[in-house]
Design brief:
It is elongated and about 55 Å long. It is built from seven helices and no strands. It has 133 residues and is mainly alpha-helical. Helix content is 81%, strand content 0%.
C-alpha cells in the first residue's frame, strides 16, 4: 500500500497535482517514516507550492535519515541560491558533488552558482571602486 502511495505521489507530482501529491507522500511517510526519498519528494511538492520553509524542512529531514541523499543536498542548494545565499548554496551543492561526483546535476548547479558568486563579488567590487571619488 505504501509504495503504491509513493508511486501515486510521483504521478501526481509529475502531473502538477500538488495537493494530491502532498497527501500521497504524507500517507506514504506515515507508513514508512524512515524513507529519505519520500521526504525529498514531499519537499519538492512544497517547493513547487512556493512553501520553501516546509520544503527545506523536508530536505533536512531526508538528510537526517540518509546523509547520502544527494537529491536533498541539491534541492537545499536550489533554495539557498533562490534566497540569494550563494555561499550556502555552494556548500550544499559541493556536498552533493562530494557524495556523487559523476551526477551531472549538482555539478552543473555548483559551477553555475560559483560563476554567479564570482560575478556578484566582482561586480560589487567594481561598483564600490568606481564610487570612491
Amino acid at each position: 500500500m505504501s509504495s503504491n502511495r509513493y508511486q501515486q505521489g510521483l504521478d501526481h507530482l509529475e502531473a502538477g497535482q500538488l495537493r494530491e501529491a502532498e497527501e500521497d507522500f504524507l500517507q506514504h511517510l506515515a507508513q514508512c517514516p524512515e524513507d529519505a526519498m519520500g521526504y525529498n519528494k514531499l519537499g519538492l511538492v512544497y517547493g513547487k507550492s512556493h512553501d520553501f520553509e516546509r520544503a527545506k524542512g523536508c530536505f533536512l529531514k531526508a538528510i537526517a535519515l540518509d546523509e547520502g541523499c544527494i537529491h536533498a543536498w541539491n534541492n537545499l542548494g536550489n533554495i539557498a541560491r533562490q534566497d540569494g545565499d550563494l555561499d550556502q548554496a555552494i556548500r550544499y551543492y559541493q556536498k552533493a558533488v562530494d557524495i556523487d561526483p559523476i551526477n551531472p546535476i549538482p555539478a552543473k548547479n555548483l559551477k553555475r552558482v560559483q560563476r554567479q558568486a564570482k560575478w556578484s563579488f566582482s561586480r560589487i567590487k567594481d561598483l564600490f571602486g568606481k564610487n570612491r571619488d
